[in-house]
Amino acid sequence: MAKLPGAIQGARIVGEQYAKAQRQKNPEGRMPLFDHLRELRNRVVKSALALVAGMIVGFVFFSPVWHFIEKPLCEAYIRGHTGCNTLGTNQLVLNGPLDAFYLRVKVALIVGIILSSPVWLYQVWSFIAPGLYAREKRWGHMFIGIAVPLFLAGNALAYLSLGRSMHYLLGLTPGGVSNLIQVDLYMSFVMTMMLMFGLAFELPLLIVMLNLAGILTHERFRKWRRVMIFATFLIAGIANPSPDPITMLILGGACAALVELAELIVWRHDRRKARLNPDPYAGLADDELSSIDLNGLDDGLDDGLDDRPDSRLN
């Protein structure tokens, strides 16, 4: 009986040879519809398994994670009070017998989404990659290496903005009205805010990937720069679940700064591309004469006609 490591190595070699044969048989990576659906199913299953593994970690470390999540609310200074134990100020309450269980599930879901982000982002890229050219597929490692830190940075900014959002929103409570915040609603607010901030931070990566694919040039970006900056703040306003204008400006300003950085990367890439592959028609007006020697071209055509066998009709 073969040893387990040897069997695994043999299976890996056979799998690589099979994949290589399939690529040689179908170099363009074309698949029928049902194969696309099967591929999508496999990617979704892998992402779901990674999410479940992350949620298990969230269940195990529920207590420290929960105290970390409620900290922005408990430290918010509202009507002269702080802390989550002041009745009627910013106290979290559970309304049903199943709410405690749902709370643990939502906390585990937040942990699972963050911990499994490298996996499901890679699965998204792997599903798109077969439709790309070979040189474009090499961008996969760059996509994952940048997408994951950007998503985590968006989550971090969302967490840092939670305390300010709570201070602003709960500070609008009129006198004589108590704030008994449902845990379920607070967790939904936190999850939406962290997810939207993380996805909004992927906007500059999308701009760079469109430039690498040849769809968005720096010239076009510069022409529509003001519109894109306005669209960035508009997207930030839509993505932000809180009507707090300060939080909206924080997200919009961070995204605008990242878009400016993306513009610098696009400019350097287009400049390098123009230096390595200069355009012979760059700088020419539409009505400017071409530098091609047409007389020499006509002489060559005449010589070719003279060399033809006589095909005149009798």
Task: Describe it.
The structure is a single chain. The protein has 314 residues and is mostly helical. The protein has 13 helices and two strands. It has helices at 4-25, 33-60, 62-74, 99-115, 117-128, 134-137, 140-170, 183-200, 203-212, 218-223, 225-239, 245-276, 294-306, and strands at residues 91-93, 180-182. A two-stranded parallel ribbon has the order 1-2. The longest helix is centred in the C-terminal third of the chain and has 32 residues, at 245-276. It is flat and about 75 Å long.
**Structural category:** mainly alpha
Provide a count of the helices: 13
Distance between the termini: 87 Å
**How much of the residues is beta strand, in percent?**
under 5%
Can you tag this structure with a few keywords?
single chain, 314 residues, mainly alpha, two-stranded parallel sheet, flat
